[in-house]
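User: Fold this; tokens only.

Assistant: Input:
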Amino acid sequence: MDKDQLLRGRRSVLRVAAGLGGVAAFGGLFVTEPTTGRTAPRPAPAPARGAAGLPSAGRPPRASSYRLQPMTAYLPVKLGRAVPPVRTRPFLKVPAEGRMMVLTFDDGPDPRYTPDILATLREHGAQAMFFVCGEMATDHRDLLREMVDDGHVIGNHTWSHPLIPGLSPSRIREELGRTSDVVDKAVGAAPLWYRAPYGAWNKHSFAIGAELGMEPLAWTVDTLDWTTPGTRTIVRRVLEGAAPGVVVLSHDAGGNRSQSVAALRRYLPKLLDAGYRITVPPR
């Protein structure tokens, strides 16, 4: 091979490399519009040029022996989460799409009761919401992953279950933020919903929850299972309160929850037989 042929071969390799670099860069030009969900192109800054006129900053190292290096500088950008509006009150129900109901469980996960609740839901093909406390979740991340694997939704119930109105804004942020971090690290996504302990909200919790990308969800039917009223009473309260869009509050931690576990085994098949679809909010 003569010298001119060698030079032409090198120029061809460089042209291919430049073309591949352009494709990789082009893939990072699209972002999701927060209001419409459509994508729109966003111009990228022109790369810096070196002395030879080839891109220098932001490009992979110069190829050795014509072997191209991975173009890691052009990996997709991780988009920030959409921030919902700041509410002045929590949601008490969910949009009723047919005969839809939502079952929620607070204060866990607890290895004594949460696995049995998950098993019952799995048996009947139902999904639920689990509002977890960070100090419980951090020691039982396997249960968080099991929840997500089964299609359930994990919500934020603060770190230590405090009375929110008695806290400073910085403390509220810590309670919610730490719990969201634990969930995010365990399952790869932070919660989109949160619930104030005791149902005690204030303006700071609404604002901070929204900043963290979460919507506030309360409940329609309170089983009062934390008072251990008896399995039959819990079942009766759920069945009497059943209606499209209803959110049922129960617990899978915070005390002896064996009645809650037994009650779910009884009322869940009855709800399904009555034509209710036990699922989670569409958000």
